[in-house]
Specification:
- By secondary structure, this protein is α/β, with parallel strands linked by helices.
- It has one domain: Purple Acid Phosphatase, chain A, domain 2.
- Strands 1, 2, 3, 4, 11, 12 and 13 form a 7-stranded mixed beta sheet that branches.
- A hairpin with a 2-residue loop joins strand 5 and strand 6.
- Helix 4 runs parallel beside helix 5.
- The longest helix is centred in the middle third of the chain and has 14 residues.
Length: 284
Amino acid sequence: MQNNNSDTLKILFFGDLVGRPGREAVRDFLKNPSEFLPEIDTDINNCFVIANVENASHGFGLTEKNYNELSSYGIHCMTSGNHIWDKKEIKNYIETADKLLRPINYPENCMGQGSHIYDFNGHKIAVINILGRVFMNIVDSQWEIAKREIERIREITPIIVIDFHAEATAEKICFAKFCSELGCSAFFGTHTHVQTADETILNNKTGYITDAGFCGCIDGVIGMDYQTSLNRFLTSLPEHYEVAMSGPKQINAVIVDIDPNSGSAVAVKRFFCSRKEEKEGSSQ
């Protein structure tokens, strides 16, 4: 679904960044998107950029150094998920990291922020980060929390974006429809690292995809090293995952065009691409 209306607000969302390859892929894409996607017709400089960064530092969590690095690339908001606490130093800087969100349905006294309203090109854009509960760590129920937060934010701005970090597709679809009925503008599923082909606009309101995918090395297993992943399956023994570091790097991203007056999505488009010179066989 495409819309070339220059009056729309564009949200560019990157699926989970995995380790250094994911950070570098996003850096290079933002510098020169045509290297990855020659046919791209969007001015990336005019996009509000969001990236899920919970796997950005060595595959687990986010260091302050990498937070600052990603900020320098032009990322306006960083969302996360169940791995947000994996780096102990997160506690030292999350309270002052205005671009970084942790899931809003951690307990109320938890440090950090679960939502934030950003000023961008004369618009107020709200982003909410939420964690699923099916096959995931137990956190507070997202349903009533999301309802209260969306209703609160709609008094300030109609532009509301959600990153729902969850495992089960049924939970993502059902929760997206629930949030759409409440007035959500865009809803991106994350966590599984496999981009789904179901981008759509729900209720003529919400740009949606079940999972945005991941950014990192194509030749691993959802961004992790193949051999260590294989060993875990073959032996059923615990083995520390290592980030896949070699081979072509992929970008999984989604752009949603939003009418800034109504807050409704008018177009949604996903990208699954790698650098042209690194591709082998057909492009994706």
